[in-house]
Specification:
The protein has 298 residues and is mainly alpha-helical. Helix content is 57%, strand content 7%. Helix 1 runs antiparallel to helix 2, helix 5 packs across helix 13 and helix 8 packs across helix 9.
């Protein structure tokens, strides 16, 4: 988003607006003609052998309306920040930042008092938890759900299974900088039968129903292609965000068809970064609340 609102795009849009206005003026001026005395001449265009068009001037009311529209557009762009930030104090952006500044001045001290506290201590504080919950419902519930139990493609935050690690500082790091998890596609490399074999082996790691013969063959495929991320025992690697395949916590589902789809096409998940948007104090409270969700289940 920051790239889109950079100075380049600002100038690009300004240039397009200016060219559009100039083009409208050019079209209007180039088509203005005066009514000449005498017989009205034809345009010279002929359709259907006999249908011709008189070269009459544009109606005055239409011309005036067009000029008024152009002048209105120019005045509007001058009054509001259509051409840069010359009058930015009149725009919605300045209003938004003014409101945010006022809110920070009013509520900032409330958030700040928890910022230097240990995350575990903040997680145990009822007032801090209530504040963290409100932020969670505002910024996180769209993906993780209001009860934080996740959905297909979005992890459950109330259990003790963490793709990137569940230590307090790690949870905060995830919120601060976001995460990008990528599972490469293996369909072309393994072929249909190879994918089915490894899918059955993966299901066997969680003691789910599977074809034993396929699972045996799938182990060889797994050892060759998957251990680099998921480990020899399939317990994953939090440093890479590689999930644990031996538990029953499945991000997309544990059915054979779903695992086949995952292995064939790969997966890509992104957790957005909130540091720039929320700031240190709010991120600290939010991390403490997320931490408290899993601790409550123990």
């Amino acid at each position: 988003m920051a790239d889109f609102i950079s100075g380049f795009w600002n100038m690009y849009v300004m240039g397009l607006v200016a060219l559009s206005i100039l083009f409208c003026v050019f079209v209007l001026v180039s088509n203005m003609t005066k009514r000449e005395p005498g017989e009205v001449k034809l345009h010279g265009h002929v359709w259907d052998e006999t249908l011709a068009e008189y070269n009459n001037p544009l109606p005055r009311w239409w011309l005036y309306l067009f000029w008024i529209t152009i002048v209105f557009g120019i005045v509007y762009l001058v009054i509001y920040p259509g051409f840069g930030n010359r009058n930015a104090d009149r725009g919605e952006h300045s209003q938004y930042y003014a409101e945010m500044k006022a809110a920070d001045e009013k509520y900032g001290p409330i958030f700040a008092k928890y910022q230097d506290m240990d995350l575990m201590a903040v997680a145990a504080d009822p007032e801090a938890n209530a504040m963290g919950k409100r932020m969670f419902l505002t910024y996180c519930a769209q993906c993780h759900g209001s009860a934080a139990q996740g959905a297909k493609g979005f992890p459950n935050l109330t259990d003790d299974e963490w793709n990137w690690g569940g230590e307090p500082d790690t949870i905060k790091t995830t919120i601060v900088g976001g995460r990008m998890g990528v599972m490469p596609a293996f369909g072309a490399a393994l072929g249909g039968e190879g994918v089915k074999d490894v899918a059955n082996y993966v299901r066997s790691l969680s003691n789910l129903a599977h074809d034993s013969l396929r699972a045996q063959r799938g182990k060889e495929v797994f050892d060759t292609n998957c251990v680099a991320c998921h480990g020899a025992d399939g317990t994953g690697n939090p440093m890479l965000g590689a999930v644990n395949l031996t538990n029953k916590s499945w991000l997309y589902g544990s059915s054979e068809a779903t695992i086949i789809e995952t292995v064939t096409n790969g997966r890509q998940n992104q957790m957005p970064a909130f540091q720039e948007f929320l700031g240190d104090a709010k991120v600290h409270l939010l991390a403490a609340y997320v931490l408290s969700l899993s601790k409550e289940q123990k």
